[in-house]
Design a protein that fits this description.
Elements (H helix, E strand, L loop, with lengths): L7 H6 L2 E2 L8 E2 L3 H11 L5 H13 L9 H18 L6 H16 L1 E2 L9 E2 L7 H14 L6 E3 L8 E3 L12 H20 L1
Antiparallel strand pairs: 1-2, 3-4, 5-6
Helix pairs in contact: 2-3, 4-5, 5-6
Length: 196
């Protein structure tokens, strides 16, 4: 699982691959097991905690709701807001309101532990609670110092987000080994055609 965002919220947004190319768009994480594996890979849950949450979800013989619906709803609201951020545009009103509501609900259900750094901690009794943790992390990202370093990959069709931590602040690709290599190969091929 590629985690190139540099922040869990950006890696969460990047669970949709090739999102700017409708012919190739793919949801990289599906179902409760997929989201649990992603949460472990991104450092949001330990493997033991993820296993316990999956056991809790599968123990319910007739679940009343999809445990991953809150995650996909949060991601649907987050993507256009991140696009607006990197495009220096106004966030779309409907998605902004949905994201704001998610952040407010997450804060209402969170506890502030008596330890530093002080951060609101949502409960993780169900897999769906992962969306609350991500909503709180989104609040931190959108209100933090690194906001001006959020970028979108310049690779055609990619659309993945990342924190540009390069000294010059000019990183262009989600991964130099992936989209960066494709771009270099494309430019080389174009130069070769012009010469020939």
């Amino acid at each position: 699982m590629s985690l190139v965002g540099g922040h869990p919220v950006l890696d969460f947004a990047n669970t949709v691959a090739w999102r700017l190319d409708p012919a190739r768009t793919a949801d990289r994480v599906q179902g409760a097991e997929g989201w649990a594996r992603w949460a472990v890979a991104s450092g949001l849950l330990t493997a033991d905690r993820a296993d316990a949450l999956l056991r809790t979800e599968t123990a319910d013989p007739a679940p009343t709701e999809d445990p991953t619906a809150a995650l996909t709803d949060l991601r649907a609201a987050l993507l256009p807001i991140l696009d607006a951020l990197v495009d220096d545009a106004e966030p779309p009103a409907a998605e902004w309101e949905a994201l704001r509501s998610s952040m407010v609900l997450a804060r209402e259900d969170a506890a502030l532990p008596p330890a530093f750094p002080l951060r609101w901690q949502p409960g993780t009794d169900r897999l769906g609670d992962l969306a609350r943790a991500l909503a709180l992390l989104t609040e931190d990202l959108l209100g933090g110092d690194g906001l001006g370093r959020v970028r979108r990959c310049a690779g055609p069709g990619c659309g993945w987000f990342f924190l540009d931590r390069s000294r010059s602040g000019t990183r262009r690709w989600c991964s130099s080994d992936d989209c960066g290599n494709r771009d270099r190969a494309r430019r080389h091929y174009s130069r070769t055609l012009r010469r020939g």
